[in-house]
Amino acid sequence: FPKKYILVFTGLCVLQEISADLRSVSPGEIITLHCSISTDYEISWFHQNSEQQMKLLVSAARGKLDKSFSYSFNINTDHYDISEISSSVSLVIKGVNDTDLGLYYCGGRNYSSLLQFRKPIRLTFNSGKSIYFNTTALKKVGLLL
């Protein structure tokens, strides 16, 4: 009798720590995060917060006739928008707040089921502290004219 073998291949998972591009913003600002992926079909933006939770924010697909990107998904249209530049889609965050801080990933695909990701973007608040002085009090003590 011929022997029959079952071959089982196990995939090797390699985790690699990738440095992120840093973008700083002040609370309440509008910021545009640019995607370095060019695609003819779909671009998606994901956010990963400090608790390591990843969520899909927006996804946009290119139309076959008009060739422009339009939403296929937007988790919050009041807070997120897209900006099309060439064959890529940038993420616009309106009124940045502390829940927006973290890592942002853009992924693109060309009529396949696999998303390709580029270097993530880390969004942080500006570290500079603003100090406000009472100008009336400073005038009284002669420190301000």
From TrEMBL:
Keywords: Cell membrane, Disulfide bond, Glycoprotein, Immunity, Membrane, Signal. Residues 1-20 form the signal peptide. It comes from Astyanax mexicanus (Blind cave fish). GO terms for biological process: immune system process; response to bacterium. It is found in: Cell membrane. This is Ig-like domain-containing protein. SUPFAM superfamilies: Immunoglobulin (SSF48726). PANTHER family: T CELL RECEPTOR ALPHA VARIABLE 4, T-CELL RECEPTOR ALPHA CHAIN V REGION-RELATED.
